[in-house]
User: Fold NADPH-dependent 7-cyano-7-deazaguanine reductase from Bosea caraganae.
Amino acid sequence: MTIDASTLQLGHATALPASPEEARLDRVPNPHEGTHYLARFTCPEFTSICPVTGQPDFGILVIDYLPGQWLVESKSLKLYLNSFRNHGAFHEDCTVRIGKKLVELLEPEWFRIGGYWYPRGGIPIDVFWQTGKPPEGLWLPDQGVAPYRGR
Assistant:
């Protein structure tokens, strides 16, 4: 399966979308369809806005998936994640919304997302969502983000 590269944001100057609704995620064919492997994206500087106070929220997102026919194109994913910068939503909504959007686009065999949020009001809120049990035999490393500890 081939893809028309001219339809991708990759290789073209692309402005940061103003909101997740305006952002476009691109997918490309998986050259190893049928092979069980884990693809991981880590966004260590994710930001959104608290919908109540308008203050910025910061977190680390870790996205793991077992690709099927499609892979997410990384430039479009970066633009999509950065489009949350001025988006007002609670931690739970941001994390699960991103996960559901990627599952809808990619139709992976398995998917999980971990949202490790920095404290708001003194309480960290970590959010985890997955599509089911990971397939047997899939190497599933720890997401590598330690639980929050006060300094």
